[in-house]
Amino acid sequence: MARRKNKQDFQDVSSYSGNEGKKRRKGRRARIALQWVAGFLCVVMILFGSALIYISTDVISELSTTSITKDKDQLGIRDDAIVSSVQDDSITNIAMFGVDSRNSEFRGLSDVTMILTVDNKHNTVKMTSILRDSLVNIEGDGYGGGYYNEDNKMNAAYAYGGPELAIRTLNQNFGLRIEDYVTINFVNMAAIVDAFGGVEMEVTYDEVEEINLNLNNLIWEVEDKKNEDYANGIEGVNYPQVLDSDFMYATGDVDTYLLNGNQAVSYGRIRNIGSDFGRVERQQKVLTALIDRVKFFGVTEYPNLVKKLAPYVETSLSIDDIISMLPILATDLKVERISVPDYEAETDLQDIKYDLVYDLENAAKRMSAFMFEEVSPYWEEYKDIVAKTKK
Questions:
Q1: DSSP letters for 263-327
Q2: The Cell envelope-related transcriptional attenuator domain covers which part of the protein (predicted)?
Q3: Exposed, middle or buried, 102 (CB in 10 Å: 0-12/13-18/19+)?
Q4: Residues 108, 134, 120, 283: what is their CA dihedral angle, to the nearest 10 degrees?
Q5: What pLDDT does 33 receive?
Q6: Which residues sit opposite 138 in a β-bridge?
Q7: 134 neighbors 141 (Cβ within 8 angstroms)
C-alpha cells in the first residue's frame, strides 16, 4: 500500500529557493525550444530534399550533363597564374561555349567563347568574351587520342578536343582557374531565346538586312547538313527550321524589335557590320537581354523556365552547383561585359593573316581586375582601363 504524502511531504518536494525554481523553468523552456528548432530543421530538410528530388527528376531531367577531369594539371590550372592566384568563394567563373553546329550535337568550332562570372559579392553577372580569332597556344589531348601543341585560333580548341581541351586552353593562355562549362549550339540558342519569349533588341536598318541574309544562308546550310547526314546514315537529328515569318521588315534607321530565336541567332552571327568585334558585342547584347528577361519572371516560374532550357544545354555543373548560383537572381543584379582583345586596352593588337595577335598576359591582368575587382592584385593598375572597356 502506497504511503500517502502529508502536507510536510509536499512542502519538502517543492522547497527550492527562488533562483533554483527559475533555473528549472528556464531549463524546461530551453528543452521545448530545442525540440521546436529540431522539428523545424527536420521539416526544412524534408522540404529541401523534396525540392532536390523534384529538380533532379523533373526540372532538369533532360539536362545533358557530362563529367570532365578534376585534375588541375590536366585543366591547365596553376596556383601562381594571373587570374587563378585570386581565390574568392563569392565569385565563380564558368566557361561558356557556343558551338558552330547546324544540328543538335555539341561538337564543332566554338563560335562563342565566353567566361561567365557570377559575382555574389557585387551582385553582378560578368561576361568576358574571347574573340574566336585570338591566336593562342593549344596544347593537350584531343579527340581520338590525338595530342596537340600548336598556335591556332581560340575556336579550334573546342573542335580539337571538346570542352576539356578548350578549358585547358583558356586556363593556360589567360591564367584562369576554370573547372566547369556550359555549351549550347546555334540550334539550341534559338530554342532558348524562344523559351524566354524572345529578346527585345534595338536593331538598325542595315542589321535587319543582315539578319535576313543570315536566315537565308541558314536555310541552305541546313539543307547541306541534312544531305550530308543522310549520306552518312545519320537519322533522328533536330535541325533548325526557318519560317517565312522569321524574315524581318525594317521600319526605320533604328527601331526596337522583339526578336524570336532564329532572328536573335542571325543577329548574333552578323560579321559584315563591325567585323568580329561587332559580332561579339551583339552576342553579349543577346545574353544581356536574356538575363534582363529573367528579372520579369517570378520565383515560382523558375522551375518551368529551367525545365524548358534543360534539353538545350550540355554542362559539367552539378545540381548543387546550379542551386548555389540561383540566389543572385533574387538580387538587383547588374550585367557587365568586356571583350578580349579590345583596341582601347590591347594597344599592341595586330591582325595578321586573320589571326588576332596581342599580349595575352596584359589581357589576363585586365580580366583579373574585371572579374575580381578590389581583390585582384591588378585592380589598382587596371581599374581605369576596366572602367573604359566594360559595357
A1: HHHHHHT--TTTHHHHHHHHHHHHHHHHHHHHTTS-GGGHHHHHHHHGGG-EE---HHHHHHHGG
A2: 110-295
A3: buried
A4: -60
A5: 55
A6: 150
A7: no
Secondary structure of 160-206 in HEC code, one letter for each residue: HHHHHHHHHHHHHHHCCCCCCEEEEEHHHHHHHHHHCCCEEEEEEHH
Q: How far apart are CA 86 and CA 173, in angstroms?
A: 16
Bridge partners of 184, per DSSP, are 98
Q: What is the pLDDT of residue 49?
A: 41
State the pTM of this model: 0.75
Phi, psi of 118 (to 5 degrees): -95, 105
Using an 8 Å Cβ cutoff, are 74 and 172 in contact?
no
Does the bond joining 341 to the residue before it have cis omega, within 30 degrees of 0? yes
* AA identity, residue 199: V
Residue 118: other Cβ atoms inside 10 A: 19
For residues 125 and 123, what is the distance between their CA atoms, to the nearest angstrom? 7
257 closest CA partner among 324, 306, 303, 211: 211
Q: In order along the chain (391 residues), what is the average pLDDT of each group of 10 residues?
A: 42 44 51 52 43 49 77 89 76 90 75 91 92 95 90 95 96 95 83 90 95 93 87 81 93 90 92 84 88 75 74 82 70 87 93 93 95 94 95 87
Q: Report the pLDDT value the prediction gives residue 237, as an integer from 0 to 100.
A: 75
